[in-house]
Amino acid sequence: MAVTAATAGAPGAPPTVTLPLGGLIVRVHRITRDAIFFGPSPGSKPGNRFDAPNGEYRVLYASERLEGAFVETVLRRPRGRILRPEFVNERAHSNLRLERPLNLAKVYDEGLQAFGVDAGELGADDHTFSRSLALSIHAGLPGVHGLAYRSRYNNGEICYALFDRVAAADLTPSGYERFDASSPTIMRLMALHRAVFDTSAPIPVNPPRA
Question: Does the predicted model carry a pTM greater than 0.70?
Fold first, then answer.
């Protein structure tokens, strides 16, 4: 689907969601990476759902709530809801305060029909379609700062893909907290999604010969 600037604000135009000045969004990230990160890294291939197909822009992924950020980042890989504690401990979560209102294309609920897409296309393992849609929105709607969409792994949660036309200065990190596999926060999130920790001993890289 081609989205053009002429459709923005017109009757029947694709709907948008406005995140207000001073609002908070949540990001889960590796402890080795800043809370504000638009990816992929320079020179890297696209890896996520709404990444630019050929480096036309970069994307910061966040969520409305910690629950959405957790399920989208920690529980999506590996699948099966069985996690190694060290996989969780490598990550943290931060709030990002919005220093300006952000206008996002709404690609869920009635926005699916408006953009001419369906949830299955956006949630497919092959990201070709979702990246093409994001590229079309980025190119055709210059006043839009990204996309709002439902989590693929918990569709009650709303997530955000922010284009790098949002400057780092437009986001102020706060509330940084490292995950700990034994913390009440992690135990609550794990219980919510019926996830468990794999407590078996790691398999040796070079097991001894018999």
Answer: yes
Between 66-73 and 184-192, two packed helices, what is the crossing angle to 10 degrees?
70
pLDDT tens per residue, range 113-138? 999 999 999 989 999 999 999 999 99
Beta strand spans in 20-157 (E): 24-30, 59-63, 82-83, 91-98, 102-106, 146-150
Q: Which residue has the tokens 């990230």?
A: 29
Q: Are strands 16-19 and 146-150 parallel, antiparallel or unpaired?
A: unpaired
- Measure the CA–CA gap between 48 and 32, rounded to whole angstroms: 19
Q: Is residue 203 part of a domain?
A: no
- 205 part of a folded domain: no
Q: Does residue 74 sit within a domain?
A: yes
Range of the domain at 114: 19-197
